[in-house]
Amino acid sequence: MHSPALHPPADSTTSVTVLRDVRPWGGARSDLHVADGVITAVVPHDPTALMGGTAYGTEHGTGPAGTAGGVPDGGVPDGGVIDGGGLLALPGLVNAHAHVDKSWWGKPWVSYGGEGGVQGRIAHERAHRDELGIPGVDVTLAVLRESIRTGTTAVRTHVDVDLGVGLRGIEVVREVVAALGGAVTAQVVAFPQDGVLRRPGVLDLLDAAAAAGAEHVGGLDPATIDRDPVGQLDGLFAIAERHGVGIDVHLHDGGDLGAFQIELIIDRTLRAGLQGRVNVAHGFAVGQLAAARQAELVAAMGEAGITMTTVAPIGTAPLPLHALRDAGVAVGLGTDGIRDLWSPYGTGDLLALTTQLARLSGFRYDEDLVTAARIASADAGRFVGRAVHDLVVGAPADVVLVDAENVPDAVVRAPRRALVVAGGRVVARDGEVLV
User: Fold this and answer.
1) Which 8-state DSSP code applies to residue 237?
2) What is the pTM of this model?
3) What secondary structure does DSSP assign to 332-398, as a single string?
4) Is the predicted pLDDT of residue 317 greater than 50, yes or no?
5) Which residue has the higher pLDDT, 7 or 407?
6) Distance between terminal CA atoms of the chain?
7) DSSP assignment of 1-16, as one string?
């Protein structure tokens, strides 16, 4: 792997006007019409329709649904009409919990040398990030390009804000996203990885980040990091109310301690009138509680409009996805860190992570596997500020084509992405990123 140099948006990528012969969510073959980066029509595919005087499906040899090996060669003729070859279409994948400023993707292998636990990993990262140029344009660009290659078109990323880096990480992420020219969109969470109250001056930095345009401010284990859950939440909610931003709190604490902090978040959300603007990331406690206690907490979260994001972690109790969904608690899926100083794991492939989410959740039925796919795509639009994110009229033209029989097959196998379209522009093709 290598770290590509920062460059302006590529002019060679294709703007799509019609994405022909695709199967949205594994349904009937359809044509998606696109204008100004938005889906304007979804119509049944007519294989006998002519384009440029040639029967398009015959010219490119498209076979039965699920049999094409990739987007046919020559499938980008004049006018931006692309032949999908009957491939399965999904909405662009949404990484609802990332740390794109932290990755050393594209650099030589970095052996992990830190202590275990949250505190140990924080210390290790702080001691060695400068050696790797983190945060930096090259590493952030490398990990975002890899995410685009595998079908991610929108990201909510936590970006470290602390006394050592100030707001530099946010500036780096904004610069890289702009250079990618719409291949991926990003919302930023100003994230206090080293604590809020225990590091005087961090609250001021979070406030400055919100004033400068960060869409959310983050928190971290209010009880065990700052040892003052009320104080940390008071500070975060004050910033959110002052600047009209959202809140996204990392909460690793389990059991009753974690549940207690979620109850505090619920109470503050209702008092501040921030329903629908507050997220709990990880929230391991929710999966660990006894059934009655869990049902009570989940219901309260739904009433307060609290959302959750998970990274499908191995070794912890899975979140009760069906119960959360039934209570109106939206759930997003994210990669967390990708090959960083916290852990060497992670590839940025959100569809592969969807496979892991489904397995950890014990999903076997087709409808459950479709639910997992929706968590990673259409249902996650709200985590990146989108009212609609789906293969429907009015949605951004973010589309991923895969060679799969149906959605359950795509979730179980996570096949190579044959085509990735973001904002109506082809950004990856047959496993190669084009930006």
Assistant:
1) H
2) 0.91
3) EE--B-SSSSS-S---S-HHHHHHHHHHHTT--SHHHHHHHHHHTTGGGGGGGT-S--SSSTTSB--
4) yes
5) 407
6) 16
7) ---PPP-PPPSSSPBP
